[in-house]
Amino acid sequence: MNTPAANKLLKLIEEPPAGTYLLLVSSQPEQILQTIYSRCQHLRLSQLSEKDILGYLSKQGLGQDQALYLAQQADGDLGLALEQASDSSELEAFERWFVEWVRAAFRAKGNKAVVQDLLDWSLELAGLGREQQKQFLSYCTQQFRLALLVNYGLPTSKPAYAATQFKIEKFAPFVHENNIEDIRAELEKAQYHIERNVSAKMVFGDLALALTRFIHRKPTEI
User: Fold this and answer.
1) Hey, what's the torsion of the CAs at 96, 142, 192, 207, to 10 degrees?
2) Of 210, 21, 191, which is closest to residue 115 (Cα–Cα)?
3) Residue 18 confidence (pLDDT) above 80
């Protein structure tokens, strides 16, 4: 807001019409003119917790797995969670792609034939729209984070993976301090390249093969 506009707003705040309430919302209150800021009553609103969003979505009739996924992805933004709640089929697809990826990565050790399965997987992902590709990469990041928390016995909600019967408790021991940073870095690199229109076939092909290098790495011995 430039200074002339701010001064116009200041006059309205000082002399509002009868029965009028003005709600000013800003994520950067330090940028507001002090003359306006000093005339406002301040309410600081924090992000909603994952538990709050999960509870609200559950009351709207969403299944536990879908509500949990949306709450974890929303990062405190209930509006975003509600926007994504309309397409339950996408969650099932993300689950299937993720499970296919990690299972193939396990089988790829010493089995060159499985590499073709990983390349087929990468071609399927390459055929998606860019926004869906980015959402899937965010989903994968969240699943590896959950596995790490489960591995170290930290409190977290566990999805049931109804579409694939995947057991995160069995997968969790393979996600640890000796490979999680490399896995996260690969996912972030893939996201970066997708946002910049790098060939999706190359991005997901590299990502598919990268996991085969990290998933069999042993935890650090103490």
Assistant:
1) -50
2) 210
3) yes
Can you give the residue range of the structural domain that contains 82? 48-86
What is the share, in percent, of the chain residues with pLDDT greater than 90?
43
**pLDDT for the residue numbered 133:** 95
**87 — pLDDT class (breaks 50, 70, 90):** low
Query: Domain for residue 43, yes or no?
Result: no
Q: What is the DSSP letter of 23?
A: -
Q: Is 38 exposed, middle or buried (0-12, 13-18, 19+ CB in 10 A)?
A: exposed
Q: What is the pLDDT of residue 171?
A: 94
Q: How many domains does the structure of the chain reveal? A: 3
- What spatial distance separates the first Cα and last Cα of the chain, rounded to whole Å? 57
Question: What's the CATH code of the domain at 133?
Answer: 1.20.272
